[in-house]
Amino acid sequence: MRIGDIELVPLNDGFCKLSQDFYVGLDFVVHQDLLADDGLIHIPVGCFLLRTGKKTVLIDAGIGDIDLGWARGGQLPAVLRAAGAEPEDIDIVVCSHLHLDHIGWLSVDDAPYFPNAVVRYGAADWSQFVAAPEAESRSRLIMEVLLTAGRLEPLEGDMLQIAPGLTARHTPGHTLGHYGLVVSSKNERAVLLGDAVECPLQLEEPDFHALSDVDPAMAARTREALWRELEGTDAVVTGAHFPGLRFGRVLVGTGTRHFGPLGR
Q1: Which of 3, 150, 167, 195 has its CA 20 to 30 A from that of 49?
Q2: Which CATH class is domain 2-261?
Q3: DSSP for 212-245?
């Protein structure tokens, strides 16, 4: 789609298959529609390609060409090419946070996969997901490759300009260093929520959360602040794991909010 003069392309690196306890506090008797035939929650692993001014930006970097059991990646190079971009064309990679399914393609064979790109990420994530002794080893190795190559530029603060029309907004809770991205051009705006919102149903049922939220209470406050800002506006919205990576708008109904697909 186009947001004013900016081109925005959703890309799917693969999929996650998660058990029902991943959505903590959700009654699946009522929400069987969220489950695939195998009784698991199937969600995409979303990335987004952005062309703005003279900059080409990749938002999130998928899982990588690996099968983790609960997730499988590997599609990003092909879908990136189908969108008219090669790894060397990427100027900036912005990782919404440092969970493994958002950084997997940052390095391949101990070298940066996007050879000309600087990598931006929330500084507050480093201590937990890279530096901590219990950090997942693959995450640590990926980020240390980028550190050695001098490609990392951490984000600190709020409402930080990344590229023309692209602003990083601190949206903590899922992780402490989580950032959403706001795309704006002319009178149009899109908000890429990352994992600040895992599922559109969290609009209507705000009391359930993702098992992977580092601070569930903070994550709930962040979601509520986002909904208050977005409800009833023309801003288009999606998350890294929304079904089909579809965009919609936050609509106000009778006493509740809901996610309205575009064109309705």
Answers
A1: 150
A2: alpha beta
A3: T-SSHHHHHHHHHHHHHHHTTSS-EEE-TTSGGG
